[in-house]
Amino acid sequence: MRICFIALLITISAQAWANNDITNNKLVEAIAAIDANVIFMRHALAPGFGDPEDFNVADCSTQRNLNEEGRAQALSIGKAMRNSGLQFKEILSSQWCRCTQTTELLNLGHWSTFDGLNSFFQGYVDQQMTLDLLNKKLASLDRGIVLMVTHQVVISAITKNVVRSGALVAYNSTTFETQEFTLD
Fold first, then answer.
1. Phi, psi (deg, nearest 5) at residue 35
2. CA 132 to CA 139: how far, in whole Å?
3. By three-state DSSP, how is residue 88 classified?
4. Which DSSP symbol is given to 32?
5. Closest to 146 (Cα-Cα) out of 183, 103, 101, 184
6. Which of 114, 181, 177 is CA-nearest to residue 150?
7. What is the pLDDT of residues 59-113, one digit of tens each?
8. Are residues 168 and 86 in contact, defined by beta-carbon separation less than 8 angstroms?
9. Are the CB atoms for 147 and 127 separated by under 8 Å?
10. Measured at the alpha carbon of residue 95, what is the angle toward residues 59 and 139, in degrees to the nearest 5?
């Protein structure tokens, strides 16, 4: 009986380890599947739709922001990214506060804002100018993986993937292949 119990514990431990390994390697596997050089991430959960009429990119109080669940989601995704062992060559974020908050909570190191990731959903920025900046950036990428924290409309415009908050899309900027996945 004791041998059966020990065998059961070993089996459960092995399954738990394997499941954790699979979760932590989703990022690496998605990149490898298409030789991705970009990871697009939609900002973590920020309930609501669009931004208030008094929107000001420099004032977070005028924007839709992460809630408690969104902050926990960003922390969890950041932990999974760190556990993957992957190092990003560059980390870029939309200027919108829900994206900068997500990027900060990921805790992956130095990052900066990039206008080519801003939301053109409500016309606060020009769609064509934004996509031109982003496409120029994508065309200039060489070695390494770049993380881009942005909005659903931007991800959809480039990858054709419609993703939920916190979802990720691995993207190959040469072949335009995509691989959607989640880490939370």
1. 55, 50
2. 10
3. coil
4. H
5. 103
6. 114
7. 999 999 999 999 999 999 999 999 999 999 999 999 999 999 999 999 999 999 9
8. no
9. no
10. 165
